[in-house]
Specification:
Strand order of the largest sheet: 13-12-1-5-3-17-18
CATH topology of the largest domain: nicotinate phosphoribosyltransferase
Structural class: alpha/beta
CATH superfamily of the largest domain: nicotinate phosphoribosyltransferase
Number of strands: 18
CATH architecture of the largest domain: Alpha-Beta Barrel
Radius of gyration: 25 Å
Largest sheet: 7 strands, antiparallel
Length: 397
C-alpha cells in the first residue's frame, strides 16, 4: 500500500505535526508562501478577542493558555495574556502576540483551537458550578469527544469548577483520584443490583467510595433500599442515571428514593444523578440531590468564538473593518470586576476604581523572545482562582 494512503491507527495529529503547522488552514500556508516571495513580512501585534459569547452570556472563562505557551516557546516572539482561568467579556483582548508575522502565521489555527475549545468547556463548567451551589459536580463527558483530547476536556472542566473528573489519564495529569461509580454493564453481567454492589464492595480497595447504580432492572427506590440494607454504613451513595429515559418526573423519583432511605435510617446515603444533565436539570434537582455527574453539556460545550486580528504593523495602528486598531491594555477593578480597554500607551491614571482600589493590569507578559517569563500555576491554583471569581459573577447578562 502507498505509504501516503496507509491507514493510521487513530486519526489525530501528533504534537510534532501541530508544532510544524500541519493543522493550519491552507490559506495561511498560501499567505506565508506569498509573503516570503514578496518580502513583505513585518513585525505585527495580533490580539485575540471574542466578539460574542454562547447564548449571549455576560462572561466566559479563559482556558488553554498553558498549551499555547508550550506551542509558542522557542519562537522569537512576545506574548501577553490574561492569567488562565480569568473571566473575560466580549470584545476584551485576552491575549496578544507580538513579533514577525511569519513566526506564528501557520500556528493561528492551532492557537485558536487550543483556547476556543478549552475556554468553552471551562465556561460551561463554571456555569454549572454556580448553579449547583455547594453540591458536588463531576465531569463525566469524555466519551462525547475524541479520546485523544479527553485529558484536555477534563482539565478545562476541572479548572472551570468541577470537583472531579472520570478519565484515568486526566486524573493523573491533575494529580487527583478519578471520580466514578459503576456502569450498567457490571450490573447486567452480575445479574442483580445488590450482588453487583456486594462485588464492588468486596473487590475494590477501601478508599473507593461505595456508590451503587440503582436503575438497571427495577424501581429505583426499592433497589436503593435493598442496596442500603446489604451494605449498611459502607454504602456512600446511590446513583440514578439516564433521567431522560425515565417515565414520569425525575425529581419525583429522586424524592421517593430519599424518602424510602430516610424512613429506614439510611440518612447517610447520598444521592448522585447523571445522564444528559444540563443547567435547567441542575436547578430543578439541586435541593434534593447531593452530587451531579455532568457529561455531554460540559464536554460538548459550545466553543468560545475567539478570533485573531492584526492591530498593529511596525508600530503603526491598523486593523480590518470592524476592529479597533492599535495595541491595547485591559484594566480591571478587583472588587467590582469593572473593566476598561485602553490604548497600550495610555497612562493608568485614566483608570480609577470606585472602591479606591488599585486597578489591575490583566494582560501580563507570558513569553519574551520565546522564553517563558512567568511560572505557570498548577491547575488546582487556577481552579481556586476561578472559584474565587465565580462568587461575584452572575449568570444574568
Amino acid at each position: 500500500m502507498d505509504q501516503q494512503h496507509a491507514p493510521r491507527s487513530l486519526h489525530q495529529a501528533t504534537e510534532a505535526e501541530i508544532r510544524a503547522g500541519l493543522t493550519t488552514d491552507v490559506y495561511f500556508d498560501r499567505a506565508v508562501e506569498i509573503i516570503r516571495a514578496t518580502g513583505t513580512d513585518r513585525p505585527v501585534r495580533a490580539e485575540f478577542t471574542a466578539k460574542s459569547l454562547p447564548g449571549g452570556a455576560a462572561w466566559g472563562i479563559f482556558a488553554g493558555l498553558e498549551e499555547v505557551a508550550a506551542l509558542l516557546q522557542g519562537r522569537p516572539i512576545d506574548v501577553r495574556a490574561v492569567p488562565e482561568g480569568s473571566f473575560f467579556r466580549a470584545y476584551e483582548p485576552v491575549m496578544e502576540v507580538h513579533g514577525s508575522y511569519l513566526e506564528f502565521a501557520a500556528l493561528e489555527t492551532a492557537i485558536l483551537g487550543l483556547i476556543c475549545q478549552s475556554s468553552g468547556v471551562a465556561t460551561k463548567a463554571a456555569r454549572i458550578r454556580i448553579l449547583a451551589g455547594d453540591k458536588t459536580v463531576a465531569s463525566f463527558g469524555a466519551r462525547r469527544a475524541h479520546p485523544a483530547i479527553a485529558p484536555v476536556i477534563e482539565r478545562a472542566a476541572y479548572l472551570g469548577g468541577c470537583d472531579g473528573v472520570s478519565v484515568v489519564k486526566a486524573a493523573r495529569i491533575l494529580g487527583a483520584d478519578p471520580t466514578g461509580t459503576m456502569p450498567h454493564s457490571l450490573v447486567l453481567l452480575v445479574g442483580d443490583t445488590v450482588e453487583a454492589a456486594l462485588a464492588y464492595d468486596r473487590v475494590l480497595p477501601r478508599e473507593v467510595p461505595r456508590i451503587a447504580l440503582i436503575d438497571t432492572f427495577n424501581d429505583e427506590k426499592f433497589e436503593a433500599v435493598r442496596v442500603a440494607q446489604a451494605l449498611g454504613d459502607r454504602l456512600w451513595g446511590v446513583r440514578l442515571d439516564t433521567p431522560s429515559s425515565r417515565r414520569g418526573d425525575f425529581r419525583r423519583i429522586v424524592e421517593e428514593v430519599r424518602w424510602e432511605l430516610d424512613l429506614r435510617g439510611f440518612q447517610h446515603v447520598r444521592i448522585i444523578v447523571s445522564g444528559g444533565l444540563d443547567e435547567d436539570d441542575v436547578v430543578r434537582l439541586r435541593d434534593v440531590v447531593d452530587a451531579f455527574g455532568v457529561g455531554t453539556s460540559i464536554a460538548s460545550a459550545q466553543t468560545i468564538d475567539f478570533g485573531m486580528d492584526i492591530v498593529e504593523i511596525e508600530g503603526r495602528p491598523v486593523a480590518k473593518r470592524g476592529k479597533m486598531s492599535g495595541a491595547k491594555e485591559l484594566w480591571r477593578c478587583p472588587a467590582s470586576g469593572q473593566d476598561w480597554v485602553l490604548p497600550l500607551a495610555e497612562a493608568r491614571l485614566a483608570v480609577e476604581c470606585a472602591s479606591g482600589e488599585e486597578p489591575v493590569r490583566m494582560l501580563q507578559p507570558l513569553l519574551r523572545g520565546g522564553q517563558l517569563v512567568q511560572e505557570l500555576p498548577a491547575v488546582r491554583d487556577i481552579r481556586a482562582y476561578v472559584l474565587d471569581q465565580l462568587r461575584t459573577l452572575s449568570l444574568v447578562p
